[in-house]
Amino acid sequence: MPDLLLEFFSEEIPARMQPRAMEDLRKLVTDRLVEEGLVYEGAKAFATPRRIALAVHGVPARQKDIREEKKGPRVGAPEAAVAGFLKSAGLTSLDQARIEKDPKKGEFYVAVVEKPGRDAIAVLADMLPDIARRFPWPKSMRWGAASAQPGALTWVRPLHAVVATFGPETEDPQVVPFMLGDLKSGNVTFGHRFLSSGAIEVRRQDDWMTKLEKAKVIVDPARRRDIILTEAKNLAFAQGYELIEDEGLLGETAGLVEWPVVLMGSFDESFLEIPPEVIRTTIRNNQKCFVVRDPQSAKLAPRFILVSNMEATDGGKAIVAGNERVIRARLSDAKFFYETDLKTRLEDRLPKFAQIVFHQKLGTQAERIARIVRLAGLLAPMIKADPVKAERAATLAKADLLTEVVGEFPELQGLMGKYYALAQGEDDAVAHACEDHYKPVGPGDLVPADPVAIAVALADKIDTLVGFWAIDEKPTGSKDPYALRRAALGVIRIILSNDLRLNLAELIALATEGYLEQGKTFMKEFVGEAAKGADDLSGLRMSYDAMTGSDLRDFFADRLKVQLREQGARHDLADAVLAVEDQNDLVAIVRRVEALAKFLETDDGRNLLAGTKRAANILRIEEKKDGRAYTGDPDPALLKEPQEMALAQAMVAIAPEASKAYANEDYAGAMAAMARLRPAVDAFFEKVTVNVDDKALRENRLILLNRIREATRTVADFSMIEG
């Protein structure tokens, strides 16, 4: 079957836009082909700084003919209904329709619509210019004399040529004929801007790729990435160094060149006196270059690797020299910033925060820091951290935001705080907390492990969550401008990774106190009933009960479920555990979910689940019908059948053992004990009828079923578990 080759050749396309443009082009074209009944075999998109392209394989040469019957209104229907039917079916009169009879609905009109298929090349000629005109570039422009005309073509950069060929491998392909602005589609493209000249006539994908490579263009971005990475590693190794890999920079440099040429440059060793992250960020951000290290010491080396788009006659000496000049100037600036920052102690910068508003309703940065300091000090004893160090770290943690280096490179916040803290003689734990308190930033980020850093990180995130919740600035849908989901997941990951037995309600309460101490009046409204009539702080303190109805804890529960699902846990097990757990001890919740999952993998677990769900379903129906709950202990005198006697005895024997195991957080032991209920539960449902005519006997058996429900609810609400 025929193949399609499509290429849009233009001026420079920004590297950041290329991956999305490739996917957009592939999806727009292939979706439209499917809509037109042209189901293809495969498609691959390409991008370079000067072109985006698509090759689609196995496209049918022609659409299939369509014949379908369209049911119309009944005979004698109003004229408006008949007219609508004729229009939709493409008929001029009812004479072109036939009448069919339905035993129930009577006679109605039926039109036979026949639509002959079109040649695929004609379909492509219609759809490709439409796709090009609607292409979703983040930014686009008009150019030339035609740009003043209404409906002028727009593209990310001025277009110079459009290739569109279609045909089978065994024949010369045809050009798909269409106009795009003043450009006519054809089979001519162009090679590298500087390393080739003249037009290149192409036929299909393999021919196109081969000819462009001869013209110094590698069209596949994945291959350019591989070339850059391999050659950079080899060049570093040949000089006795090791490349510091950077996936983001690798993708960006692959989008900046059509013919990658890897070169090495150097900078003065004196710049190594500044932190290596500053050097790396300076070189990366300003010149898109990689850095290398000494493989023995793992320290940064005074070398960099650049990716050029040129094969220079001098072997790249002039290109390297130009990059060295720029990097020398940028590193001189960075060194000046760093040395200037060292002249001012971190704590001496803090007064400026009083003039910087964190949020109009939540106060200044200075007020926020004061709350974090207080909260970190209160959390420290709970996680065996030194309160003095925790408060000192919290005091200094945000100070680097006012430094020159962080002003130039915001992504180095926290890290520079660590360097400046060490430089002024702070304790190691305090310095590292300055860096780590922002963590974890993303799913793959490390979690703070040192107690001082944990205290500050938790204080920072919980203060943020409580504050924004109090002023009703919560995430909605996909919008989360204050990254509150990330903050909650950060709290959860810190607690779980460090196995911290903290009470979530108490953490929220302590954070709320910080706002109340500062006289934030909105917090009294947030506290609600707990604040009414209270004249002192102790009366305003949020207890566990005051937060029970708050959806902040529900928000944490939702984030925990997301975290558990990402780790492979079943969503229904998390829901079942959270339905009976007070949601305050995250570690206990996770342990119970894990134990429940293992239990349900056994035959005893699955069968007990089935029996318990059956008991719960019967109780739900009967309690709703009777308008009462069947609680308490069953009357031994009303236990008539051997199976109900055996179940009652099993409950008496096993329930205390399960409760004891649960109290000792031996969740596996609690479930193992409950598993011994299985034979009695199975026998009960097999031999005993619950809804008998004898009212007292029926109620006693419902009470017995409730004992099963209550016993299993010590671990989870089994009725919420699927299966």
Keywords:
5 domains; Alpha-Beta Plaits; alpha+beta; 723 residues
Q: Summed up, what is this model?
A:
This protein is 49% helix and 13% strand. The protein has 723 residues and is α+β, with helices and mostly antiparallel strands.
Question: How would you characterize this protein structure?
Answer:
The protein folds into five domains: 3-61 and 119-214, 2-Layer Sandwich (Alpha-Beta Plaits), CATH 3.30.70; 66-115, no CATH class; 221-341, no CATH class; 347-568, Hypothetical protein af1432, CATH 1.10.3210; 592-720, Isoleucyl-tRNA Synthetase, Domain 1 (Orthogonal Bundle), CATH 1.10.730. A hairpin with a 2-residue loop joins strand 9 (179-180) and strand 10. It has 723 residues and is of the alpha+beta class. The strands form six sheets. Strands 2-3-1-7-8 form a five-stranded antiparallel sheet, covered by helices on one side. A four-stranded antiparallel sheet has the order 13-15-16-14, sandwiched between helices.
Question: What's the helix and strand layout?
Answer:
Blueprint: E1 3-10, H1 18-35, E2 42-48, E3 51-57, E4 66-74, H2 79-89, E5 98-102, E6 106-115, H3 120-133, E7 159-167, E8 174-175, E9 179-180, E10 183-184, E11 188-190, E12 199-201, H4 205-214, H5 221-238, E13 242-243, H6 247-254, E14 261-266, H7 276-287, E15 290-293, E16 300-308, H8 317-341, H9 346-349, E17 357-359, E18 363-364, H10 365-379, H11 387-396, H12 404-408, H13 415-423, H14 428-436, H15 451-470, H16 484-497, H17 504-517, H18 521-527, H19 537-540, H20 544-548, H21 551-566, H22 571-578, H23 586-600, H24 603-626, H25 642-663, H26 667-675, H27 678-687, H28 695-712
Antiparallel strand pairs: 1-3, 1-7, 2-3, 4-6, 5-6, 7-8, 9-10, 11-12, 13-15, 14-16, 15-16, 17-18
